[in-house]
Amino acid sequence: MADIATPTIHFYLSNDEHGYFSNFSRHPVYLKGKRWPTSEHYFQAQKFCGTEHEEQVRLADKPMHAARMGRERSRPLRKDWDTVKDSIMKEAVMAKFTQHAELKQRLLNTGNALLVERTANDHYWGDGGDGSGLNKLGHILMDVRNNIREGKTQLESGSHQ
After folding, report:
1. Which terminus of the chain faces fewer neighbouring Cβ atoms within 10 Å, N or C?
2. Phi/psi of residue 64, each to 5°?
3. Cα distances (angstroms) measured from residue 44 to each of 8, 29, 119
4. Closest CA to 118 of 126, 106, 107
5. Smallest Cα–Cα separation from 130: which of 4, 7, 10, 19?
6. Which residues pair with 117 in a beta bridge?
């Protein structure tokens, strides 16, 4: 019997076929008692948790602006960022795909497909454009998909503040 290859879904731009996987897709999330315009806004703002910069990033008019603000090293990056960034990304992705029923269904409809953020711009969250990257965002999406299937829609409570 021949092996059936696992399908792969590539995503990157929010206006592409699978753009809803992008953190730039215009699907607000509700976390920490506030509305965040996109999961990108939330993720970038958490680099400055508890400072005025957190709110400035939340209020950015576009996800790209929030991303730029989050990358500005003139802002004081929280000391534990490298330790907490993956769990904060998972928190944002879980919120997005559990707070929007249509996104939840679309994620579940991917079955067991490998989800890959295809971009040469990012070797950590993406695949580096050639598969050499870590594809952390894709792995988080697949973890969230599995958690939703198993009825685990709340992350274990570990405060990132």
Report:
1. N
2. -65, -35
3. 27, 13, 19
4. 126
5. 10
6. 11
pTM > 0.90: yes
Contact 112, 106 (CB under 8 A): no
Q: What is the DSSP string of 71-90?
A: H-TTS---TTHHHHHHHHHH
Q: Using one digit for the tens of pLDDT, what is the confidence trace for 73-118?
A: 899 999 999 999 999 999 999 999 999 999 999 999 999 999 999 9
Distance (Å, rounded) from C-alpha 7 to C-alpha 79? 39
28-to-24, 73, 74, 115 alpha-carbon distances in Å: 10, 26, 27, 21
- The token pair that represents 65 in the structure block: 């602006």
Q: Considering the chain, what percentage of its residues have pLDDT values greater than 90? A: 89
